[in-house]
Amino acid sequence: MKLCISLLFTAFLFVSCAVQPRADKPGAASLANTEKNRQIALKNEVTEITRVAQEIEQQGRAMDSYRALPGAEGARQCAAVMDDQRKQTANLEARVKNLPENYNARLMPIIGELNDCVSCAKQAIEGCKKARASINQAIEEIY
User: Fold this and answer.
1) Alpha carbon of 110 to those of 23, 32, 33, 104: distances in Å?
2) How many helices (H) and strands (E) does the chain have?
3) S-S: 130 plus which of 16, 88, 100, 113, CB 3.0-4.6 Å?
4) pLDDT, tens digit, for every residue of 40-79?
């Protein structure tokens, strides 16, 4: 009889220790998972932002053909492309502003360089070079 009671007590103890916490009362493990998921989502957003920045920089380099067009028609075509690229850069800037300070401070200077890169100015390629160097440095620092 004592053996039966002892076995029942051990079984009860084993089962009660194995019960998961209720979903309405998050434990430390679920809080840790929430924080981990938040960090993963943040890294994914930063990765996407740097990818878009690289695309804008490449598009700025591709604008050389528009910058080289002569006359008013060439300037008009370049300005139209520049406006589209600057809208993309403005959208990227809004995303960077929503990042925590440690990422925001590292990525925000790239926005100005990208604006220089996608301009119709003859020295725009210098902005592209600076943007590429800054993007690469940010990637090294962040990852």
Assistant:
1) 43, 33, 32, 10
2) 6, 0
3) 113
4) 999 999 999 999 999 999 999 999 999 999 999 999 999 9
